[in-house]
Amino acid sequence: MKPKVLLATTSSWYPSARLAMALHNAGCQVDAVCPNNHPLRKTGSVERVYVYRGLSPLRSLARAIAISRPDFIAAGDDLATQLLHRLYAREKRNGQSGASICALLERSFGEPHSFPIVRERCAFMEFARTEGLRVPSTEIVRTREDLKAWVTRMGLPAVLKADGTSGGDGVRIARTLADAERAFDQLQAPPLLARAAKRALIDHDTTLVEPSLKRKRRVVNIQSFINGQEATSTVVCSKGVLLAALHFEVVNKASSTGHATVVRLVQNAEMAAAAEVAVHRLGLSGFYGFDFMLEADTQHAYLIEINPRVTQVGHLSLGPVRDLPAALYAALCCKDVQPAPNVTEKDTIALFPQEWIRDSQSPFLQSAYHDVPWEKPDLVRDCVNSRQKQSGWYARLNRKPASAPERSAEAAVAATPITHSHRSLSS
């Protein structure tokens, strides 16, 4: 009997669809709880889909778990992890009636004492420091006075980060005190109602509606700036044992503080050791990402944060101990790992649709392995159509038309029959 994985996501993030495909190909039965019109509905890899409702999130998740009865839950984004941790706390208070859900969540995410540590940036950095891992100084700043005191003591530049954000959405680099104060004000402020509306109407993502309406402020951290190369690791683990891992240098990003769009596979002993220590000492299970800075002068790997969820490279199969879905399937079935064939022999990977959205004429779409799921043309078309809708929204919001290169690139893709022979969306 196939192990069943419930993929829980609160946003219509494209990489969640790729993970669903990879888990299905590895041998898992996949169910999902997600917003309406999530692209994973276009994969043909999901057995049953339950609707996630942002205004009643715990009820949505609990209902999906009760009906699906999965063997494992994978979180597709940070908010999903936070909500599942909250569900665990609620069911723990229910005693014996909540025991089965608690056992499932412990099997999926690890030791409960780790939950607040992996959710809160400053708590995780303090944990890593006490474990002897190489980390930059990090503190919570609650007021402008806290901010000024930290800058006086530690200097600039610095990086400000808001808890509960991902993909660079809640990150700012400050090189002056004025930059830092402006970033602090922006990051702690509740989401703008216009932004929440855009997310709900265009992305079918209601996660910002409640904090916008209730004017919830976010926790902001400040971190010493490390000059160097960004890098990232993604792992799958079980009960504190690392099962498989991928380590990459970041080649291109969507923006200066945004998510990676092109990555290069590397072997880095310091990154691998840091991830293994964190997994073991926190007793983690499931999918996690670790972000690093490789210092320019020394190449030392500074651990800068943990992502308690699947990351955008988690679906890639790159050989033994580098195939996370296959490793999870084997662990759930108590079998030896049988990794899928390598998706590429190239070290450099252009992520789809991330690099195409960044630059539809990027040379990496030709020179690197362009990770387009050609076998799922409906999924590719859905991504293209979604991008066109977003462009239209921003054009209306800014009262100006989308740029000519953007219009022509999107029109060319939309008009092009999608076949297995294509190698780049810009061709």
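(ticket continues) Second input and output from the same batch:
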Amino acid sequence: MRVLDYVELVEDDPRIRLEWTVAPDRFNVGVTATLAHLGIEVLPWDEATERPYDLALATSLHRVEEITAKHRFAAPHGCGYGKKYPGWAWPADQEPPVYGLDRESLLDRYGRLVFSKIVVPHDKDLDTLNRQCPEAGHTGVVAGDLTFDRLLAGKAFRERYRLDLGVRRQQTLVAVGSTWGGESLLRHFPELPLRLLKELPADHRVVMTMHPAVWFEHGPRHVRAWLRDATEAGLDLIDPGADWRPLLAAADFFVGDHTSLTPYAAAAGLPVLLSHFTRDEIAPSSTVAELAGVSPMLTDEPLPTLLAKAAVAQPDQQRIALGRISSQLGRSALVVRETLYALIGLPEPAAPPRIEPTH
């Protein structure tokens, strides 16, 4: 879904031929089916790695160096760069770097640069890149956050999104987001979805979205079984592969962990209640770390009280998130498209790129 944001900037150009492939990975279950649903044919990985390309575009760093291309372009698949390099893959006596802007991620085993250009949303991210991997500093493009720009464009369709989600006019919509893994909201607070439904007034709706790795590490049937009591009590789930941006554009509150949706929600103006904060996984320079300093966190207090505290914190939350998410607010498509066409070696179309809201 993140790759699509970038592909849509060039896919209507008849001079460009697109081919899609999926790198082998345990978390890529379901990706090919999702692409097929979107009308996208997938080239087998073994074939893709044998063909030459002008440009390889990815929002994951995994195995991209195996694609033969004149240039490779990378962008984050979350809200900027906020996670530490996995502790299990880093010496115990050293502080892990910010993942995705480090030498291990951006250089191949021979010490050569993998990417010609890498999107960094904010000037501070470029500083981190220069500090952690100076060899790749010149590849950083401060291009803002294309996903957030589309989220803001979608806010104009808030009422339509609420209707699509079945939210009535006077209802309060609480969005819940969980990342994956042992430090996620679902792992620490599996009872939270049901607790929200029990403690919030009847005029509140609760809709939850989860990282795709939650769905496909365990299987959609198994995940739905875990949440059966909550869904029978009224919880709605955003299906795996569905876009989460309409949910944030429609919501009145957000409850989440260190998922990328947390800073996106705060920047979009939603009061945020944090389930918890994971210092072992999150870089102290990240937006989530800054938000943790001003945000209420889940306790045994009644949830209406906690959401009221989030509403009080909302101005500070939005100020922090907006100041950190993007240095090119509203201009990401312009910067990215110019970069992509320069790498491909074609002049840009005369018409400016369009920022389409999610449909």
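Agent notes: Residues 53 and 226 are 44 Å apart (CA to CA). The chain has two domains: 2-145+327-344, 156-325. Closing as not reproducible unless the customer responds.
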